[in-house]
Each structure stands twice: as structure tokens, then as C-alpha cells.
């Protein structure tokens, strides 16, 4: 029997494989160096030195001071700490925060949780390309607005926001600006002064680092209420023993992403464009959900009319192609995700959002094979739907 062709992984926005060079940087701290960075003995000091070096690496990429970095258990914790921690710390100045309807739930649900503390939360809508209009932000700001949180790039469509323009508006109104850079960090410049942000979230497993480690940039002078109680780690901003091997991996992965950004993004762009072109020109009426030229290079965010993307995803998985959908399973029924709903796509496309995200291991030949498979299965689903309509 001929061997099955190797599987094609096109879900790098969900998780990237660990870069072998990053693993090599982590290796000593996974089993040779047992120390806790808070211990005073030699093993502890060795762990502390590794932590300090990784902190300098992350700070160097962000263009900030090492003391402005708080290591976390990932992007979710970084977002929660930014939104809840900064808002609660500023509650005496005001109780209004502004975010946007397409934020990751780590931001959106964190913001909504503030209502239990007497906050009002404004969730800005987006235009059909997924972008927040500067005027919409300006109109939402109030004298009691303490925080604005808008992601640098969306995790379903890859849409990039104009964060410097939005930050200027937030700052003019006296609010702090947070951006979730979890998806963007491996592909865009994340210098915090150029972005003009006060808080920025990162996660290692989106940029060829390990899972369950991230960081929050906190500009000097921005106060954070604590969310975890315990030790005084991370300058008393995040209690709990630091994930030393993970943090070493984050530092190495982020440095490599910065040093190789041009070459990596050119590769991503070539691959994702080839895949998108194959599908868009197949006569299925497919469209992109992210605006060309303002979408992360690794993203081919597709939407098909009259196709159930979950069925498409399952067929593709059986055929060896791994992608994701813009659907969330809510109480047993498959509803379009909050992002797809906020984009206001025509009704026929709402259940048909398919996110393909390329990465370093992908090849041009894989794009052809995956594109053919997507077209073949979408076509089959179209025909099934048409046959069902005829029977009805
Ligand atoms: C934009 C965005 N923010 C936050 C997160 C959460 O990050 P983590 O999985 O590291 O908790 C993700 C993960 O998919 C994301 O895409």
C-alpha cells in the first residue's frame, strides 16, 4: 500500500512547533539546573541569572527596561493582568474601560468581569475589514476612562490595527493603552515606544517557543492590582515561582523572531498568498475576512458562502490538512464566533469561516496540495447543500 502523504499543518495561529534552537536554550533548565530563582544558594543564583538574561532579551526586543517585563503563564494571564490589574489599580481615577468586539476572550471576558467592580465597559465595533475607526475610539472616551485595550492583530482574521493612532487618542484622553500582541509578536515590530503603548501581552507558543509561558510589558509608572497572592516574584506584580525553562525559551524565541523577521514574513507571505489565490480563484465565491495588505503575513483567513466550515474542517482533517474555523461551540449549537459576527459578513458566509495559518515548516508544494483539498471538499459540501435544498 502506498504510504499516506505527510499531514499538512496550517494552524500556526493556534500553536507553532518548538524551534529546536529554542529547545536547546531551554534544555539545561529542564533537568540539569534544579534551582528556584528565589533561593540564595548557587543553584538558585544560576536560575536567577537565566531569568535575568531572558528578561533582558525580551526587554531588548520590546525596547523597554528589564524591570518593565512581568513573566506570566501565557497570553491569557498577561491579558487578564493588564486589563483587570491596570483597571483596578486606577479605579479611584475612573471606572470606564474601552475595548473592541473582536478581542480575544482573554481581553473581552476580563474587561466584562470588571462590571462586578462597578466598571462600565464599552466594546467598540469594527468596520467590515475588522478595523477599529479612530473616530469611534475618540467618541467612546470619557473623563473617567482609565484603560483602552485593542489587540495589535486579530487571532481569527489576522487583521492589523493602527495601534499608534489609537494610542495617541487614548493618551490624549488620559487613558492607559494596552495591546494584545500575542499573534503579532512573531511577525510585526513590537517596539513599545513606536506602538506608544503602556501595556503589551506576549505568548511564547505563537512564535516557536514553548507553551504556557508569556509576558506582560508594563510601562514604568503604570500600577497593577495583584491577581495572584503569594510570593513577591516579578517585583511583587505576579506571585508564584517563575517557569525558568519556559521563560528562557520565550527569550530565545522572541530574539530569533526579531532577528529573522524579514525572512520569515516573506516566506509566510509567499505561502499564504499562494494558498489563498488557489482557493479564491476556484469559482466557489470564497473571500478573505482580513484586508489584503493589513493582515498578518501568515494568515489566509477564508470564508465560503453556504459551506459549514466545521464540516469542511473535519473533512480536511481526515484528508491530512489541519486548519481551524471561526466557529465556537455554544450550548451544543455551532454559532459563528464573536469575531465573525462582529465583521458583519453577508449571512451566507457566516458559518463558512476557515482560518489557515502557515509557518516555517510549510512548503510551496503543501500549499498546492492543501489548496486543492480545500477546494475539493468545499465543492463537495456545496453540492451536498444544493442537493439538500432540492430535496427540501
Ligand atoms: C490574540 C490572542 N490573545 C491571547 C491568547 C491567549 O494566549 P495563551 O494561549 O498563551 O494563553 C491567544 C491565543 O490564541 C491569542 O491568539
Structural class by helix and strand composition: alpha/beta
* Average pLDDT reading: 95
Binned, the helix content reads 40-55%
SSE ordering: EHHEHEHEHEHEHEEHHHEEHEEEEHEH
Largest sheet geometry:
7 strands, mixed
First-residue to last-residue Cα separation: 42 Å
CATH class of the largest domain: Alpha Beta
CATH architectural designation of the largest domain: 3-Layer(aba) Sandwich
Domain module count? 2
Mass-distribution shape:
globular
Supply the CATH superfamily name of the largest domain.
Answer: Type I PLP-dependent aspartate aminotransferase-like (Major domain)
| Small molecules (ligands, ions, cofactors) in the structure | pyridoxal-5'-phosphate
Number of strands: 15
Strand order of the largest sheet: 2-8-7-6-5-3-4
Helical element count? 13
Strand content: 15-25%
Structural Rg: 22 Å
* CATH topology descriptor of the largest domain: Aspartate Aminotransferase, domain 2
- Low-confidence region ranges: none
Please give a structural write-up.
The protein has 2 domains: 20-259, Type I PLP-dependent aspartate aminotransferase-like (Major domain) (Aspartate Aminotransferase, domain 2), CATH 3.40.640.10; 261-391, Aspartate Aminotransferase, domain 1 (Alpha-Beta Complex). Helices cover 42% and strands 15% of the residues. It is built from 13 helices and 15 strands. It has helices at 20-32, 42-62, 75-89, 105-113, 134-140, 163-172, 192-195, 233-236, 244-259, 261-280, 309-318, 338-343, 364-391, and strands at residues 8-9, 69-72, 96-100, 120-124, 145-149, 176-180, 199-203, 214-218, 287-288, 299-303, 321-322, 324-325, 327-330, 333-336, 353-357. The longest helix is centred in the last third of the chain and has 28 residues, at 364-391. The protein starts with 7 loop residues before the first strand and ends with a helix. The model has no long low-confidence stretch (mean pLDDT 95). The protein binds pyridoxal-5'-phosphate. Pyridoxal-5'-phosphate (PLP) is lined by residues 74-76, 79, 104, 106, 151, 155, 180, 182-183, 203, 214.
Amino acid at each position: 500500500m502506498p504510504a499516506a502523504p505527510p499531514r499538512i499543518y496550517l494552524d500556526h495561529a493556534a500553536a507553532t512547533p518548538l524551534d529546536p534552537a529554542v529547545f536547546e536554550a531551554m534544555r539545561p533548565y529542564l533537568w540539569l539546573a534544579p534551582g528556584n530563582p528565589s533561593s540564595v544558594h548557587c543553584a538558585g543564583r544560576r536560575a536567577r541569572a537565566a531569568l535575568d538574561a531572558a528578561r533582558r532579551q525580551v526587554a531588548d526586543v520590546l525596547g523597554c527596561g528589564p524591570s518593565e517585563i512581568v513573566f506570566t503563564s501565557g497570553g491569557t494571564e498577561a491579558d487578564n493582568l493588564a486589563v483587570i490589574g491596570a483597571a483596578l489599580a486606577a479605579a479611584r481615577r475612573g471606572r470606564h474601560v474601552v475595548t473592541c468586539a473582536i478581542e480575544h476572550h482573554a481581553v473581552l471576558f476580563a474587561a466584562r468581569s470588571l462590571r462586578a467592580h462597578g466598571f462600565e465597559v464599552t466594546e467598540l465595533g469594527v468596520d467590515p475589514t475588522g478595523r477599529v475607526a479612530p473616530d469611534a475610539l475618540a467618541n467612546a472616551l470619557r473623563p473617567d476612562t482609565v484603560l483602552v485595550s485593542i489587540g495589535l492583530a486579530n487571532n481569527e482574521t489576522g487583521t492589523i490595527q493602527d495601534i499608534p493612532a489609537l494610542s495617541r487618542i487614548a493618551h490624549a484622553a488620559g487613558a492607559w493603552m494596552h495591546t494584545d500582541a500575542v499573534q503579532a509578536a512573531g511577525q510585526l515590530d513590537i517596539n513599545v515606544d513606536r506602538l506608544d503603548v503602556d501595556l503589551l501581552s506576549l505568548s511564547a507558543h505563537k512564535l516557536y517557543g514553548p507553551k504556557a509561558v508569556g509576558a506582560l510589558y508594563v510601562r514604568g509608572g503604570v500600577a497593577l492590582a495583584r491577581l495572584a497572592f503569594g510570593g513577591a516574584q516579578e517585583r511583587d506584580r505576579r506571585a508564584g515561582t517563575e517557569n525558568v525553562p519556559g521563560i528562557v525559551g520565550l527569550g530565545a524565541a522572541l530574539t530569533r523572531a526579531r532577528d529573522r523577521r524579514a525572512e520569515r514574513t516573506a516566506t509566510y507571505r509567499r505561502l499564504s498568498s499562494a494558498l489563498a489565490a488557489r482557493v479564491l480563484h476556484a469559482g466557489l465565491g470564497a473571500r478573505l475576512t482580513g484586508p489584503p495588505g493589513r493582515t498578518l503575513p501568515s494568515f489566509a483567513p477564508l470564508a465560503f458562502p453556504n459551506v459549514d466550515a466545521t464540516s469542511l474542517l473535519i473533512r480536511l482533517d481526515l484528508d491530512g490538512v489541519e486548519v481551524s474555523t471561526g466557529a465556537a461551540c455554544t450550548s451544543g449549537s455551532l454559532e459563528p464566533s464573536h469575531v465573525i459576527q462582529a465583521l458583519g459578513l453577508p449571512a451566507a458566509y457566516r458559518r463558512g469561516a476557515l482560518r489557515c495559518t502557515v509557518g516555517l515548516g510549510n512548503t510551496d508544494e503543501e500549499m498546492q496540495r492543501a489548496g486543492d483539498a480545500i477546494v475539493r471538499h468545499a465543492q463537495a459540501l456545496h453540492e451536498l447543500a444544493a442537493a439538500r435544498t432540492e430535496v427540501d
